[in-house]
Design goal:
mainly alpha; Cytochrome Bc1 Complex, Chain D, domain 2; heme
Amino acid sequence: MITLSRRPGGSIMYFGLLVLTLLAVPAAAAAGENPLPASQARGHALARSVCASCHAVETKGASPNAKAPPFRDLAGRHVPLTLQRRLADIAETGHYDMPPINLHADEVQDVVAYINSLEPPAAAR
């Protein structure tokens, strides 16, 4: 039984902490639904919608197109600015069998943020 008392250190403080904790649980659960920061989450969504028909964009699995490297293999291969330039060029002009894609500079940054959030292969470390 919780008793409310106004004494310093009394159970009112315990009750207040309990209420704050219970209020924080739904917010923490919602945050757990998408653990990626906003730019990485946007990049992941773009990768899934624009790139996944050829590239493996998740942390596991093979690319549908054997010539297209999985995004996790790109993680750590380039410094972010170099990867950003490279993806911007590819978005504009295409690359080998890859056609040009219509991505804004901000979207390229988001895809780079997502790629760099992936764990690079052990050999690249």
